[in-house]
Amino acid sequence: MAEFFDVTLADVVDFFNGKAIKPGQEGDYPAYGSNGLIGGSSEWKYDNSIVIGRVGAYCGSVAYCKSRFWASDNTIVAKPKSGDVRYFYYLLKELGLNRYAGGAAQPLVTQTVLKGVPARIPDVSTQRRIASILSAYDDLIENNTRRIAILEEMARRIYEEWFVRFRFPGHEQVKMVESELGLIPEGWGIAPFTELFDVRYGKTLPTKNLCSDGKYPVYGGGGVIGRHDEYVVPGPTCLITSRGNGSGTVWRTTEQAFVTNNSFVVVPKGRFAGASHGFAQLFSSYSPIKTVLGGAAQPQLTLDGLASLRVVGCPSELCLEADSLIQPMFNLANKLHEKNANLRATRDLLLPKLISGELNVSHLHEPEGAISA
Q1: First vs last C-alpha separation in the chain
Q2: Which residue in 3, 59, 103, 328 has a CA-CA distance of 20 to 30 Å to 96?
Q3: What is the per-residue DSSP string for 95-109?
Q4: pLDDT reported for residue 105
């Protein structure tokens, strides 16, 4: 059984302040803000280190970058004095650093506070064993995420080729004709968005009804905001954010889910009936939805706005032909999303047990290629 030692973070970790950078810049090196990647940088300042959110809503968040990177002034960079860097990344995640935030106007953690945080750590060989178990899950998640991105890009390119550039199978024999939206293939048409899709608001769900252990994820205006014991959509579904700065953003659920009234649920109908959520997402993504945004205090998309939006509609047989190519890609991507959810759940179950020493790993072989500070 490995022996654990009581320390403060100042005993085992060096801390450094990040430096200002504008979000969204490009460069060869990743740039991190308080909630992870915010763009790129032409310069780097750190490598193989841990990035901690310093200020704001994501104060205390923890990220790890093995390569060279830039860290903004909204972060604190942590580098172990010795030992396995990945182990310390998982240790800091488990410590829940947001608990140590102060600040009146907005949450804030400082180096001084972090240095005094107590922790228990094992010897280096045990650190490496723990890190190898947890990182195996993260490596699988990262690999699946890359596969999802490739599948979605393949689907996007098919859609763009057929329905944006109008280079669908047999396009050489189809005449282009004038329309109110410009040149379109003969036999296609212009229709209101709501003639091609059934669009409805999600359901109202008071914040007090959110929970952490509900059966179904709850989707707000841009992602999962909690869980609930009921669902609104029975499976993967196209969504459009209806309120806030993300209004008009098109995305999707990947499973049964509760969708709040901060998003529209979008289902193909009419000549597009039978098409998938994947086709609906792509169609909506390439439609000029943001041109019909309203709202004085903040951007807002309404049913009336979508009803006024006129879009190009292709023949139903071409829609279904494209969908037969696109939907298998989205189906596989959805399965990979589900696998990632299971991997994260298992990793998060193991994390506190491994970090605390509740699970004994001393009988395991020490991994090769461990990442040391």
Answers
A1: 24
A2: 3
A3: HTGGGG-B-SSS-B-
A4: 75
The runs of H, that is alpha helices, within 38-179 are 85-95, 111-115, 124-159
CA distances to 165, 190, 206, 315, 321 from 162, in Å: 6, 17, 42, 12, 11
Percent of the chain with pLDDT over 70: 98
Report pLDDT for 63: 95
All residue ranges of the chain with pLDDT < 50 are: none
pLDDT at 359: 92
| φ and ψ of 13, to 5 deg | -135, 140
Residue 86 burial (C-beta neighbours within 10 Å; 0-12, 13-18, 19+): buried
What residues contact 311, with CB distance under 8 A and at least 6 apart? 181, 190, 191, 192, 193, 196, 283, 287, 288
Roughly what angle, to the nearest 10 degrees, separates helices 316-356 and 85-95?
90
Burial of 127 (0-12, 13-18, 19+ CB in 10 A): buried
| Nearest-angstrom CA–CA distance, 277 and 235 | 9
Please choose, from the candidates 251, 247, 246, the residue with its C-alpha nearest in 3D space to the C-alpha of residue 266: 251
